[in-house]
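Quick question: what would this complex look like in 3D?
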Amino acid sequence: MPFDNSYARLDEKFYQRIKPTPVKNPRIILVNRELAEEMDFPLPETDSELAELFSGNKLPLGAEPLALVYAGHQFGNFVPRLGDGRAVLLGEFLNTAGKRYDIQLKGSGQTMFSRNGDGRSPIGPVIREYIVSEAMFRLGIPTTRALAMTSTGEKVYREQEFPGGIFTRVAASHIRIGSFEYFASRNDFDAVRTLADYTINRHYPALKDSDNPYAALLEKVCSAQARLVAKWMRIGFIHGVMNTDNTTVSGETIDYGPCAFMDGYDPATVFSSIDHYGRYAYARQPSIAQWNLAAFAGCLLTLIHEDTELAKSRAEEIVEGFGAEFRKHYFSEMCAKIGLVPTSPAKDLLNEFLEILQKSKVDFTNSFRELGKAVRHEHSALLELFADRELLQNWLEKWRGELKKQGIAPETATKAMNSNNPAFIPRNHRVEEAINAAIEHNDFEPCKKLITILLLPYEEQPEYAEYMNFPEPNERVYQTFCGT
Ligand code: AMP
Ligand code: MG
């Protein structure tokens, strides 16, 4: 097997070498054959072999399992040591084109970072991460991927008993801002430098030749996060736990815990049961990303310049640049939702539309999707969503005028809008439905169906029209849980 485990070649202080703890009765539930093919990962033939592999009972040849150490700011508070407490990195797999993929098992048993945890995962969070991360990928958002889902045949005890599961995650890497914080907080700047060099080598090799590779690294990570969060905003995604340990340096979305998609548009939307003060609310995500990047900058100061003041001012300048960069991406993503190039009248129109949405608390996803039809005055379904139709009618007139001014033909606008405004998202009540069917009836069909529909989120799929519906009041999900 073409594993090339570069992280395992770093010093032992970066991880613990540990194997997954075998499980009693593993069963394969889903394998992502398309991803396996992209990776040139040879899948075994039988279900029992797949189950053994993706539960960690049998290690693939060439794997060198590790639990990675990291620290992190959780809800603003620094925790000096977190680490993979319920996950092991099997290794780095190379496809024939040389692309590198981290393969990690999540829910694979205790490690030295488990603290009081059991190292296991109930099947619910496994299902959520599979559905949402694959949907994100299809929506065009940088993300870790799902390679497989297994059940363990063991029970996991939380506030009640749940069936256990293991998730196989594939990522560009598992290097987090928290990985840097772990060593910086111990004043181990040799390790910080090793990790920075490793990151540059792995993700941003062109920076090796820059005047100041570490300042350039900070810039790259800021850009990647600005791009990422702007994309989250476009589809109404709320990560829910934007802690520094859940922020990658690669710019992929990672750690789908209490994440959720906004139904009715409200910038203050929060789902996570543990987010009491709305720190990670929808509209706060950009400023929190910047906060996390400031924490990253803090780790790199001594590498950026030996003169602390000079280092600080350089780092501050870069982190401050996040604001402008985010806004650039944000308006480009968001104006595309109304079919316009992000000129200043287009931005005003966007903001006005969002205000109307907020006032009427109408469904974020469906109203933008319907707008695609309203270009050609087919706006009856759109109007039905709104209480105050006059306000919307006025806006529609102005908007159509702006499309004309920008010289955008109706067909072009509709097409562009449809590829930026999904018809299907993993709606929270559908995800819950899939999880409940699995837990209560061992029925994975709703989960598989949802995954199939979300393969084509931007396509009309009339046979699945009910999956476009926003939740009825009795179906609405108000809170999501880590469930770990
Ligand atoms: P998360 O909130 O998922 O980002 O996890 C935060 C930290 O808690 C990480 O260090 C996890 O490895 C650890 N953790 C979460 N659940 C468990 C568990 N069941 N057993 C051991 N460690 C866990
Ligand atoms: Mg995490």
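Answer marked as accepted. The chain has 15 helices and twelve strands.
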